[in-house]
Amino acid sequence: MTVKEKNKKSIDDELIMVRKELALQKEEKGKLAAELIIARKELAFQKEEKGKRAAELGIANIELAFQDKEKGKRAAELGIANKELAFQDEEKEKRATELGIANIELAFQDEEKEKRAAELIIANKELVFQDKEKEKRAAELGIANIELAFQDEEKGKRAAELGIANIELAFQDEEKEKRAAELIIANKELLFQNQEKEKRAAELIIANKELLFQNQEKGKRADELIIANKELLFQNQEKEKRADELIIANKELAFQNQEKENRANELVIANKELLFQNQEKEKRAAELIIANKELVFQNEEKEKRAAELVIADREIIIQSHEKEKQEAANKELEAFSYSVSHDLRAPLRHIGGFVELLKKNNSDQLDETGLRYLNTVSESTIEMGNLIDALLTFSRLSRTELQRSRINSDNMVNRVLNTFSDELAGRNVELNLLKLPDAMGDESLIQQVWVNLISNALKYSRKKETAVIEIGGKIENDKTIFYIKDNGAGFDMKYADKLFGVFQRLHKARDFEGIGIGLANVNRIITRHGGKCWAESEVSRGSTFFFSVMNN
Fold first, then answer.
1. For residues 231 and 75, what is the distance between their CA atoms, to the nearest angstrom?
2. What is the CA radius of gyration of the chain?
3. Which residues pair with 469 in a beta bridge?
4. Model-level pTM?
5. Could you report the per-residue pLDDT of 338-380, keeping only the tens digit for each?
6. Is 442 exposed, middle or buried (0-12, 13-18, 19+ CB in 10 A)?
7. Residue 365 and residue 188: Cα distance in Å, rounded?
8. How far apart are CA 429 and CA 513, in angstroms?
9. Which of the following CATH numbers is that of domain 403-550: 3.30.565.10, 1.10.10.10, 1.25.40.10, 3.50.50.60?
10. Are 533 and 545 in contact (CB under 8 A)?
């Protein structure tokens, strides 16, 4: 074998070795690329797990904060419940004191009744005695007349005695009539005392029922406190479990971070080796970069979604809290309504009843001024009752749940106008009813708005020879606006801020009747529908009232 052949063979062997080495490097490159893909996937998976853990930690922190808030609320509720129990005990003692006073008063009335009965018996006995005396006097008069027939001289003396006796009999008749009048007054007084006794008995029955209701409420509060304590215990246990899970999660994240660093070191070594590879590696690297960008984009989207979910959960929690506050406010309003209807109406009934008794039984003892005072008190009690009714209606408007539906405004306004047919029949009223758009809202409450506004337009244009009332509406963006215009008394716009307040009136009661609650009810209803109320006016030239409601 020549040297040339040996060199050629050596070169061929080297080429074979180089090709084998290149094939081996290509295999290694494929393996490294596969490992790189697996590593990228593992990093993406770990990143997802890390995001999940972070989201879980965020949720757990929110939940812990919520539980702390709930714990504070429960503690506050316990404090309120204890105060309420103490208040109920005080009310119970007051009621017991009132019952004792009522019993003493009833006993006093019984004693008075017995005294009056004894006086009646004595008066009857006295009348019997007077009748006997009268008969004796009549017998004596008969004897005297016989004697007068025979005795002329004694006749004058006897006549004088008879005159005296007649005067005495007339006096006794007058006394008898006075006694009879006193008996009639005593009987009326006994009848009034019996009525008062029945009223007291009725009030005692109501007080006993109220005490029973308070005891039941006290039992319910105690049950609620027991449930609240159990719930707090359960939440504390859940909190401890969450804390344990967070500790385990932190350890797992630390382990994953260490693994991630190890993988990163291995990737650095692999990247250094891959620097010496061919164009195929660069293509694969470019593809991996694009894939990484897509993964980063997907992770960012996922984080945004997680943030949106956290925000949504917070909004749900806030809405739940608002709902609980609303329910608590409704309960307070119900308690207020019960207090107003029970505690204020009873004294008003007593005042009105005693005024009527005074007018009935003692009107002849009062002059014209006294009777006018009594009439003023009676009218004031009626007006106070109307104010209480209006206040209760105003408070109930915030508790009524809205039943939204599509409302045919034309039909509703026509129905409301039909209810004022009697008032329209006796007046010269020009009605301009334009085409009205439909609206979304609670039909019964929106109808109440129209009733109040149309009633005001008719009332304040009453002094005009020809009243002109125009009703219209339009759709503007996401809301519907309605208006009612009249040519009535109007008002000064500098007082417009008082227009929709409770019991606020811009006209004197002697000019236009009312108690100042109608527009306050209108404003509360429209506010609950997400709208607003306003007005434009000029004194003696009429007013225009506007209100808006949302279209959805």
1. 12
2. 49
3. 431, 486
4. 0.37
5. 566 556 767 777 788 888 888 888 878 888 888 888 888 887 7
6. buried
7. 17
8. 20
9. 3.30.565.10
10. yes
